[in-house]
Amino acid sequence: METRVNILKTTPEAYKAMMALEKFIASTSLTPTHKELIKIRASQINGCAYCINMHTRDARKLGETEQRIYLLNAWRETKLYTEEEQAILALTEEVTLIQNHVSKETYDNAKRLFDEEYLAAIIMMITTINAWNRIAISTEMPLD
């Protein structure tokens, strides 16, 4: 397998900018569970093995159950996720698959459940993990 560009080594300023997004996310009131659900679901959609591996491990360390992790890609078919988590997962899917746009229904549901600051943090978390997925996939970051 060929070695691909290492963003951290080649363009540390770009990596530093991504870490600034992470620092912002850490400063928000997003719950750890909400963060990890977003990270795992977006990574599943994007097919990012590196990020799925990392964030399922992180979620388990936070106390997330195996069952909820395993069923995350079929969240609409279970009662394991709260109304708030369902709204976050729907928004995560639509932002990740942005070519189809974010529906008024999905956005309005999230807006009903979260204040503007929390909703902005959700969108920034979704945007950030999608950027990380693209970096990891395009550079073929190896699993730990």
UniProtKB/TrEMBL annotation:
Transmembrane parts of this sequence: none
Record InterPro entries: AhpD-like, AhpD_core, CMD-like
Domain of life from the UniProt record: Bacteria
UniProt domain Carboxymuconolactone decarboxylase-like: residue ranges: 12-94
SUPFAM superfamilies, sorted: AhpD-like
Full protein name: AhpD family alkylhydroperoxidase
Organism: Flavobacterium gossypii
